[in-house]
Amino acid sequence: MEMPIFPLGTVLFPGGVLPLKIFEQRYLEMTKACVRDGTPIGVCLIREGKEVGAPAVPSGIGCIARIREWDMPQLGIFLIISEGTGRFRLGPTRVERSGLLVGEVEPLPMPEDSPRPPEFERCVDMLKVIVEKIGEDKLPSPPRYDDASWVAYRLAEFLPLESPARQRLLEMDTSDLLMGVVAKLLRQQGLSI
Q: What is the pTM assigned to this prediction?
């Protein structure tokens, strides 16, 4: 499968929501095509380079994003809300004449569900406390408190982490490992679970 790759300075997790302001011509054209055809975008953390200008070098694991909402408040600017739908491994890429990066992607399964780790219920309780304080409208809906990966990803979005740490969480293949690392990060932040 081939799709446009959007290298960013942030990590999108499956089930997460990412608002974007699109203004570069290559990304305006990409957004128009994705809205018109209902096709996804591959969001990857930048490994080398910058968001603006020459195509950046993306990380090898990213998140497939679908445009959920869009608006064009003025000519040359798209405001979009994208939602992460799943992980992918990035294969060979090419740069189109417009400067848009296009890559072959291999969809990856969600982190394997394993027996619920001991931290699971405490992490769910912590997430519910956070949601109560910030409002359920800030959370992708519907909530999936019974899904260990979903809970861990949402907590990772709220933790004050650098993007490389978020990327490592995105790359984890089992929910117990993912949940265990997120629980440890919560403890390191002084958040009792």
A: 0.89
At 93 the three-state DSSP class reads: strand
Q: pLDDT, tens digit, for every residue of 156-185? A: 998 899 999 999 999 999 888 898 899 888
Q: Which residues pair with 18 in a beta bridge?
A: 82
Report yes or no: 18 and 10 within 8 Å, Cβ to Cβ. yes
Place of tokens 């984890």: 172
59 in any annotated domain: yes
Do 54 and 10 fall into the same domain? Answer: yes
For residues 157 and 191, give the distance between their C-alpha atoms in angstroms, rounded to a whole number: 15
Domain hosting residue 18, numbered range: 2-108
Last residue of a domain, one of 80, 108, 136: 108
Q: What does residue 130 show for φ and ψ, rounded to 5 degrees?
A: -60, -45
